[in-house]
């Protein structure tokens, strides 16, 4: 089944999502879906200094309902619905998401600040589990405040399998070392970008642990360079210098090294990729000897 959505976004007033064709309801092995209304209504849900968030839903119900299929998605798992979108986002639209109808999670909030959600990506599967009832969803859209009118675009929904997504799109690994107390060592922290667009990262020290005690502080930890840019699908690295104090105790240490995405508002998906929850990192294992 293929459903086409025609989307027009007018930041100053509202977002309009109209179905250009009616859905053809055909039960699929991986479930099905249906729409709640032919034209979605929009409501501003959150403002910050750079972006605006809009809820797209129906007047008397959800924008889309997912219907469980007859297939059990894994051992001891309930039935599921698997769908995937195909879309090309216009400039100014930073993310288009699905979230539970009626919840206050457009956007999700933590400590009063909006955090990122995973934007809909071309042919990337969305998998929802059910317990013998539909799952009701609405759209959440984030747009640049500086954008006036966003050109219309289409979203093609298909029931079934597209391609698998990735839970963590930026990964990191680091070398380990043995250090004599009072000396320093240089480690290599490598970061890999699984997105198809560039991501800029800023490095910082995370938690430090001494086995079996905790929160022991090193004399100094520095990064060279402190910031790197990863090309889509590419990798980069920084050198981490760890300095120890002559008074430090010998033992096995663990140092958390964080790679924090820098928020840039550059393209579709950038908000989700660079929101505060998107930090990744690695743990360096160090042995300090006397």
List strands and helices in order, with pairings.
Blueprint: E1 2-10, E2 14-19, E3 32-35, E4 39-47, E5 51-57, E6 64-67, E7 80-87, E8 93-100, E9 109-110, E10 113-114, E11 126-129, E12 135-144, E13 149-159, E14 170-174, E15 177-180, E16 184-193, E17 199-210, E18 220-224, E19 227-230, E20 235-243, E21 251-261, H1 270-274, E22 280-289
Short description:
This protein has one helix at residues 270-274, and strands spanning 2-10, 14-19, 32-35, 39-47, 51-57, 64-67, 80-87, 93-100, 109-110, 113-114, 126-129, 135-144, 149-159, 170-174, 177-180, 184-193, 199-210, 220-224, 227-230, 235-243, 251-261, 280-289.
Describe the structure.
With 290 residues, this protein is an all-beta fold. The protein folds into two domains: 2-159, no CATH class; 170-289, Immunoglobulin-like. The chain is 2% helix and 53% strand. It contains one helix and 22 strands. The protein has one helix at 270-274, and strands spanning 2-10, 14-19, 32-35, 39-47, 51-57, 64-67, 80-87, 93-100, 109-110, 113-114, 126-129, 135-144, 149-159, 170-174, 177-180, 184-193, 199-210, 220-224, 227-230, 235-243, 251-261, 280-289. The strands form four sheets. Strands 1, 2, 3, 4, 5, 6, 7, 8, 11, 12 and 13 form an eleven-stranded antiparallel β-sheet that branches. A hairpin with a 2-residue loop joins strand 9 (109-110) and strand 10 (113-114). The longest helix has 5 residues, at 270-274. The protein is elongated.
């Amino acid at each position: 089944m293929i459903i086409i959505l025609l989307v027009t976004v007018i930041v100053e007033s509202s977002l309009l999502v109209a179905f250009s064709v009616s859905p053809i309801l055909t039960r699929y092995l991986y479930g099905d879906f249906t729409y709640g209304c032919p034209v979605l209504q929009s409501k501003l849900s959150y403002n910050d200094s750079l972006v605006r968030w809009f809820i797209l839903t129906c007047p008397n119900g959800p924008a889309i309902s997912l219907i469980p299929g007859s297939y059990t998605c894994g051992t001891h798992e309930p039935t599921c619905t698997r769908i995937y979108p195909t879309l090309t986002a216009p400039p100014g639209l930073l993310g288009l998401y699905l979230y539970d109808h009626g919840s206050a999670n457009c956007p999700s909030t933590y400590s009063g600040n909006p955090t990122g959600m995973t934007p809909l990506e071309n042919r990337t599967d969305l998998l929802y589990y059910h317990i013998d009832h539909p799952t009701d969803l609405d759209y959440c859209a984030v747009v640049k405040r500086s954008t006036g009118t966003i050109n219309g675009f289409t979203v093609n929904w298909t029931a079934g399998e597209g391609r698998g997504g990735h839970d963590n799109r930026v990964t990191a690994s680091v070398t380990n070392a043995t250090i004599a107390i009072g000396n320093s060592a240089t480690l290599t922290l490598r970061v890999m970008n699984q997105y198809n667009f560039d991501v800029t990262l800023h490095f910082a020290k995370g938690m430090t642990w001494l086995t079996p005690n905790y929160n022991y502080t090193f004399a100094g930890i520095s990064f060279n360079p402190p910031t790197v840019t990863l090309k889509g699908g590419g990798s980069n690295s920084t050198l981490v210098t760890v300095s120890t104090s002559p008074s430090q105790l010998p033992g096995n240490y663990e140092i958390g090294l964080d790679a924090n995405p820098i928020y840039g508002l550059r393209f579709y998906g950038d908000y989700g990729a660079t929101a505060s929850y998107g930090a990744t990192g690695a743990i360096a294992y160090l042995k300090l000897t006397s």
